[in-house]
Amino acid sequence: CRGAMVVAEARSADEPALSRRCVIMKVSDFTTEKYLRAHKQNAAAVLILLPRNISGVPHDTVQSFMLSEREALLKETLMPVYVVPEDDQLLYMYEEVKQAAATRTSSIFIRLRSMVTATAFQILVSNNAPIQAVTDNTIVTLEFQGVLPGAVEDAPTVVIAAHYDSFGLAPWLSYGADSNGSGVTILLELARLFQKLYSSPSTRPYHLMLSLTGGGKYNFLGTRRWIEENLDHASSLLQDNVAFVLCLDTLANSDDLYMHVSRPPKPDTPMYSFIQLLQEVVSSRFPWVKVGLVHKKINLVESTIAWEHERYSLRRIPSFTLSHAEDPKSELRGSVLDSSQVDLRKLKRNGVIVAEALARYMYNLSDKGSPRDVQVFRGQMDFQDGRMSSLMSLLTSVPRAAQLLDKEPGHILLVNSLEHEFRRYLQQVHRHTFHQDKDPDIAFFDQMNQPIVMYVKPAAFDLFLGGCIAAYLGIVYYAIQNFGYLYTKLKAAVKSKHQ
């Protein structure tokens, strides 16, 4: 990689000529077509302005931007793309270049007036240092594992997993509220609630293992290394008698729930029974929620996997992923607009669905009554709105891109806070730190946060400067054209002075 030094005049995406210009776009302007046009015309850079309040952006605009963002991420380019939160100065610049673009189709008089009154803006990104690969990055495989042990040593094991990192067009603006702050929040609430249920030896029918892994947005590298670490130890609960693994991924902001499996579960298996119970809870208590089973085989030829459960399925461990995203390539799973806006009511509802289904499976409550009649998680055992809101605020307080989590104090504090939550409610908590191999699967690079300088160039100043230059050139031209006459006059004046 190389550093990109940008010195270019700001232009709107509506301008016909974008070559060697810095194209300014709002979220509402950014489309795949405009991005590709800027790329085709060799624009110097693209600058995207993120709104201060995402909730004020129409849903259709957000969806359109997320789709275009995903397309841009898949496109290889040397054109720098910068993402910056809006402020008053940037909005003023945007309006000026937008107005200037609008006058291109106006009358000659309006265009001349615009040339006199308009303000030009120069964008400068000075970066002479080459971009270097980060060789000491370890956060992609930072893992947390905690256990609520069963009453007997050979009890079956239920594993609940989630990944905690985020992804987006700009790492420093990737907060991942829904993907996957929602999954982490539900997992931490499950740890608190089941710790209460496991307070008595008579209410521990299963080993309950919970895992938070990093590198989820990069082919679930953390999950792979965590599984390898556990399978290397004979005492690991993953070695045998695993009932199933439930992976939580993107569980807010929708009334859909999809259970993604690599192979359809066979009847009379633990995973089949749990899925049936989960569907019963939904149909009995939340009939408006759409539940579906999505079967996708693992393609061993592909270099990437779609869902976290596929890492377990490759080891023949029964597993599935619960998510409101039906398509693994959904734009909802990695966007800079997934910042802080989540529907806490839907998040809580999905958490209750998972918890009630787990309780009915682990304690065999089907014979006790319907999910509506027998509710385990209510009253003191209910999901706490305040705690869930606080957890979401904590998770979205800093961007959680994998390459940042071991670099800055705020990010390190977040990881330590997650570990503290595990140690508060779980036993046998282990924090695994894995380093990438000498030939890493992925490579991160530095200089992800760069300052941009904006210079204001009023057109009136350009006219004044142009007038001064024209006057200077006129004087020089007049002097050259009349050099003989001026020389004769000067010579005569010198002679008369000497006489």
From TrEMBL:
Organism domain of life: Eukaryota
Keyword Transmembrane helix: yes
Provenance organism: Mola mola
Location of this chain's protein in the cell: Endoplasmic reticulum membrane
Transmembrane parts of this sequence: 459-480
GO cellular component: endoplasmic reticulum membrane
Family: Belongs to the nicastrin family.
Pfam families attached to this UniProt entry: Peptidase_M28 (PF04389)
Taxon lineage: Eukaryota, Metazoa, Chordata, Craniata, Vertebrata
SUPFAM superfamilies noted in UniProt: Zn-dependent exopeptidases (SSF53187)
Topology within the bilayer: Single-pass membrane protein
Domain Peptidase M28: 149-267
Primary location recorded for the protein, binned into one broad class: endoplasmic reticulum
GO biological process: regulation of signal transduction
Full protein name: BOS complex subunit NCLN
Keywords for the protein's UniProt record, in alphabetical order: Endoplasmic reticulum, Glycoprotein, Membrane, Signal, Transmembrane, Transmembrane helix
